[in-house]
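Lab meeting tomorrow. Please check the following:
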Amino acid sequence: MRFRTLVTNSNLLLRVVQSIDKLSKSAMLKLTPTKLHIIVVTDLDSGLQLWSDIAVDALFSEYQIESVHNNEIYLEFNIDNLQRALRSTQSGALGVTLKLTKKQGLPVLSLTIRSQSASGREISLCQDVPVRMLTPQQMSQIREPMVPDGNVHFMMPPLNNVRSIAERMKGMGDRVAVSANREGEMNVRVANDLVDITTYFRGLETLAYDTTQEHTADRETSEFYTAVVDMKHFVKFLQSYHVAPKNIVCCIVEGYAVMFYVYIGSAGYSGAAALNDTACGSLTYFIPVRQGQMGGQPQNPPMRGAFSPISAEQQQQFAYNSYPNQQQPQNAYSQPQPTYPQPQYPQQQQQPFVQPVANQSTPYGMFAQNLQNNQAAQIGMQFAGNAMNAMQENVQQNVERYVSMRQLKHYFDVSNIYVLSKLRALVFPWMQKSWHRYAERDQTGQVVGYKSPREDVNSPDLYIPVMGLVSYVIVIGLIIGRLGVFHPEDLGYTASSALGVIVFEVLLIKMFCYLLNVGSELQFLDIVAFSGYKFVTTILVVLLRPWAPWWITWSAFLYFGFALVFFMIRSLRHALIPESSSVTGVNVHRKRRIHFLFVIAMTQFLYIWILMQYKSSN
């Protein structure tokens, strides 16, 4: 078994993987000499399924595949792992190679990325995605659903618009009704006991197929065909906007399923014109109907087909995920569940309803009662809650464009023992034996980062720098207040001056990191953390200055300055001066990095001296 290729369109492959990220944690990959098939089956009987058919030439070149099973390879992979690996190819990669290999006896998809450093030297980065190999017998049990010919085919409106509407609707019900007719009209409806909301789309482009015309010849073109599906499945499908937000065909099979065909055109077509370009392929989403009623009340008007039972003959011929004259296939990843008898519960005697009486002693009692009984008020509160949730998600997405909340939580994950150990290392750094940081590994043994400060005392944090900055501003305010020259504006001036020192140092270090090709070895938040540790030593010197003799103050300045220099050199040494077996090309700047580390450490004297200055009575 052998597989190796050059990835020529990593951007398209990344967008395909991003579109299936919300469907499931894992997916199946079927590699053939001409096609690449990504398959996601959330539930074999009644869940959302994705079947993709992508041409090899649209993604790869120099494609080599060998297998005893008709040159076909089947495997299962974690979607999040592959997505993270493909993101590494988006920053100016010169070439990307994908191959199937074994490491430590485990099969992996190895992604080798070639890039160029600032000095012009070539750097190679290897990303390994663990996979699980599947046998042809396992893959034969996973088959594409068989459904009758569709009632209506039409081009979907832009998915970004539908997605924004569905995100607001999903809090109002667990089912959504998708209706359409052959005049280019589409309705999306959600209902519950209190509210019934329908969104209308007009002027859509309909597609005529011979089978569709024969199947719907006895119905008017203005008559709607409806299917009620699970809301969470419908929202998951809308993630396909990453691939082609406009090249999507919707097919409604009344009483069976809603199918979405996402066409990936290579010529940049949009709309129905993309259907003629089959050079890339397509993604097919199957969402089965969900039987029942919406909102706990009968449909008004009734939605034909979505709730009508299917005859036994139709079930035998076209049932979702059923096959004529064959045994029902089992999921390759789950064992068949036994059927248990439903328990019988005794019927409870219905208690008479008693209208609660508002508490007259509370001025808000009558208002609360009226608010609970007023359906319009409840609907308004529900809309307000949905609006607040949407605004919160929008703010969170905008903030995470610049700073990841997950990373911030990592840097603030501290304990009392860690804080005391870090303060001791800042004041008495030569008493610490080990300065090595511990790596964090996943289940396969691959390094995914470093341990949090709670687990590793040598890990940088942001808790001590933030608390040090606040304490420094308070200490300066107390000192100038004791001198009798305090003004509230002094607190803002002191804080802005301290932040200015931090910003200047961080920008200076980032500039040197760019010139010396220091990339992932030293993260941005690591630089901010190390730069903020100087407030601890500065506070100790500032507290001595007003009361101690000058020689004691300057002796403390020299001692704590050298302590901070020693701390910075030992902490940053492993990041700036890697071992000789590290990434290819970084040892060229080893001597320059040593000089850079020495400059960073010695400038701490200058920063402490600047922070020692404050307004005096003179």
User: Anything to note?
Assistant: Confidence is low (pLDDT under 50) at residues 296-369, 580-586.
